[in-house]
Amino acid sequence: MLARLAGKRLLADLVAHRVDVIVTTGGTPPALAAKSATSTIPIVFINAGDPVGIGLVASLARPGGNITGFTNITTELMPKLVELLTELAPKAGVIAVLVNPNNPNAEGIIRNTQEAARAKGVQLSVLRAGTEGDIDTGFASLHQLQAGGLVVDPDGFFAGRRGQIVALAARYAVPAIYAHSPFVAAGGLISYGTDDDPVYRQAGIYAGRILRGEKPADLPVQQPTTFELVVNLKTAKALGLTIPLSILARAEEVIE
């Protein structure tokens, strides 16, 4: 709550100073907050999921208004995360998904994960966590749910609590998959998602084009074209898991 209030105050200050362009990071909530704060100052968002579905832009090709940016297609990514998790834990009859209910993409994340789990013949339990305490409670329920694996929603709130989540996955010995490789670098098991570094560079280019006179309405929202698969063999060993060769062969990075 304090972070959200601080963000609103910062946006209000930026609008009051009539800055030339606002670039938002941290996903969907900051992008929506910026759009609510101003309809005139150009906005470039980074890593917002389903920007059309949540009303950020009119369309990807012609965003309209004063906002454009880069989507990480998080909602569409969930079936791939489920697919990889079931490869890692083929005997799991139940998996769970950790979702931030405060994110406007939450229902889309749940829906796509549910459909993917059903297609794989496994049950899905939804763990809603909007606070650090909720994260602790969610992990504590995994044993009772008999969950053999966990998908972590690619949400900015969870990214900011990476250490807590990775530590809890180790404590409860649950195979967990993430959409961001820093989780794996911090000791997580596996990730599949976009590389953020090129996105930040492209966002800087968009901001420069806007400063030179182009309008956000004329700059299409860009989708990611490359994805990276990262595996931590040390974590797999601690969990007693053998990473299938089919996954290792596709991995861009293997941490040993």
Description:
The chain has 256 residues and is α/β, with parallel strands linked by helices. The chain has two domains: 2-72 and 196-218, Rossmann fold (3-Layer(aba) Sandwich); 74-193 and 228-255, Rossmann fold. Helix content is 44%, strand content 17%. The protein has helices at residues 2-16, 28-37, 74-88, 106-119, 132-140, 142-145, 156-159, 162-171, 181-185, 196-211, 233-239, 245-248, and strands spanning 22-24, 43-48, 67-71, 94-99, 123-128, 150-152, 176-178, 190-193, 228-232, 253-255. The chain is elongated. It starts with a helix and ends with a strand.
List keywords for this structure.
about 260 residues; alpha/beta; Rossmann fold; 7-stranded mixed β-sheet; 3-stranded parallel β-sheet; elongated; disordered N terminus
How much is the radius of gyration in Å?
19 Å
Oligomer category: single chain
Strand order of the largest sheet: 5-4-6-7-8-9-10
Q: Percent of residues in beta strands?
A: 15-25%
The proportion of residues forming helix, as a percent range, comes to 40-55%
Question: What is the overall silhouette?
Answer: elongated
**CATH superfamily name of the largest domain?**
Response regulator
Largest sheet, if any?
A: 7 strands, mixed
Helices, by number, come to 12
Can you name the CATH architecture of the largest domain?
Answer: 3-Layer(aba) Sandwich
CATH uppermost class of the largest domain: Alpha Beta
Residue runs with pLDDT of under 50 for 5 or more positions? 1-6
- Mean pLDDT across all residues, rounded? 91
Count of extended strands: 10
Distance between the termini: 38 Å
Element order, helices and strands?
HEHEEHEHEHHEHHEHEHEHHE
Structural class: alpha/beta
The count of domains is 2
